[in-house]
Request: fold
Amino acid sequence: MKAAVLEKLHTPLSIQDRHDLNAPPGHVVIQLKTAALNRRDYWITQGLYPKIKLPVVLGSDGAGVVLETGDGVDASWKGKEVILQSGINWGDQEEAQAPEFEVLGMPRDGTFATHILVPQETLHEKPDFLSWEEAAALPLAGLTAWRSLFTQGGLKTGQTVLITGVGGGVALAALQFAVAAGAKAWVTSSNDNKIKQAIQMGARGGFLYKDDGWETSMAKEAGAPDLIIDSAGGKTYNGLIDLVKPGGCIVNYGSTLGNPQQINMFKLFWKQIRLQGSSLGSPADFRNMMSFIQEHQVKTIVDAVYPLEEVNTALERMKHSEQFGKIVLTCAS
Amino acid sequence: MKAAVLEKLHTPLSIQDRHDLNAPPGHVVIQLKTAALNRRDYWITQGLYPKIKLPVVLGSDGAGVVLETGDGVDASWKGKEVILQSGINWGDQEEAQAPEFEVLGMPRDGTFATHILVPQETLHEKPDFLSWEEAAALPLAGLTAWRSLFTQGGLKTGQTVLITGVGGGVALAALQFAVAAGAKAWVTSSNDNKIKQAIQMGARGGFLYKDDGWETSMAKEAGAPDLIIDSAGGKTYNGLIDLVKPGGCIVNYGSTLGNPQQINMFKLFWKQIRLQGSSLGSPADFRNMMSFIQEHQVKTIVDAVYPLEEVNTALERMKHSEQFGKIVLTCAS
Reply:
């Protein structure tokens, strides 16, 4: 098998030949067809992730065919086309993951490879309407979007939702799910072209977040949103607190702009706002998402496809946030 | 009638003789037996409240007897002993109050008087098991505690709840409700004596919040709380984010220590925490609270009782946060 390995922080991944994998009890070996990048992979290469262990095969998203099943795994999985759930050992509380929770691709070897060893709990049948590229692009971003919008944000049909920083995988999945659920979705971006693309996907409109006073424009044009899905945080955060509807909710699944300064607490309590954190999602979230995309035939947005050998070029593209949708690798050996 | 009037900011209230009140349609005149102080009254005297209109009779909490009913009000209210709901015009959304919402005692004349004119919607029959002093002490603090704990905080039997700054009316009502609901309640205070009193009321224990590392002591002794009810905010807030259980919730109904600096956003999303604002409560919250205190025979904690004429002494006591429970005025003419 081949794998893209991070040997040392701040260095490119190296493509290495490795011994073939065998499936211990409760596990399966997957012949990967495709994998997808997440910002997490880039953070790890930069040392910006807790408890990094090297060397490691990066990659949290993958799809492929079950090659070998270990003892205790239903043998009918063998030969099946599957999509891998990125999280393992969520635990038994829907509210939050257990301390044992981990994500594929650090510390456990991930999907930037021709083969991967995974526990049975990660297996889901690949829906036929998704291509291999679309399948690999779904799990981590889709799950994060799903939990943020519905489990944590409680989005309902007819409500207005604002999704900030459209273009990234989670924001686009959130846009697709919100539109499919019958919500009025609006977006922000630093890039006018991305806003145009979002409108083609069903967004009601969008705002350039670098424009002063875009929040006022949104309030006038769209009304105050019931729900905001944000991964920026930082100094823009109080603007969202001003903007959100009284009784509304801001869900954060990231903070690419760092910590917010000086939360306006009076607004928090007088407007009866909820600031909700969200990360990834539970197995129940994943199953609900899979049913939803099946019902609504939601196809993941793929930005670009690279062969596994060009993984460093792919990481570079993500680093500069040029993408609109997911960056995918083809893993065929 | 007599009333304690705020003529000018930063001056004592003056006791004045006024013309008797008449009830226009939809309204009633109440002969007040008792009133209670809230921090809001003090903020208003200091100009620290939005849209202050003077002169005004302060006071949001009151209990008394219906003296006169206006047209359109069921005449059977006449002569009844009532407790007044402090909020008017909540609106039709449970999530947050409408822009028209107001609280008795600014801009509308309040309860620091022998008589008051109120719309019918404020009337609730006084439960027999509450004295006049206990009745006046209930509405604003009880309602704020109720909404914070249950409507916003979703407290369930068996959960662990931490109530910060025990001694104030809302914190004490929250403690009483939490204990009555079968939750494990813990408290913080700056005063060891207040913690001892809280334990006598059913708290499992308490911590001096000025002690460095009290959060660690709490985590060891009580486990991480599912819910924290806070009205301080400020620099102590990130300690609460560290302390609360993954998937847990911090409800704020005030920010006496000002705005928190630098919310740790990574902890917010990785721990899947909810930061929830809460203010006062809806008519439905009030009805639910009244049923609950009836069922559990919860009697409001009264700290001290002053005649109306000594309202300025009473305000002074609240200013220094010396009280344990509500400060009450007797209003008999």
Chain A touches chain B at residues 93-97, 152, 233, 245-248, 252-255, 258-279 (CB under 8 Å). The domain at 2-138+300-330 of chain A is CATH 3.90.180.10 (Quinone Oxidoreductase; Chain A, domain 1).
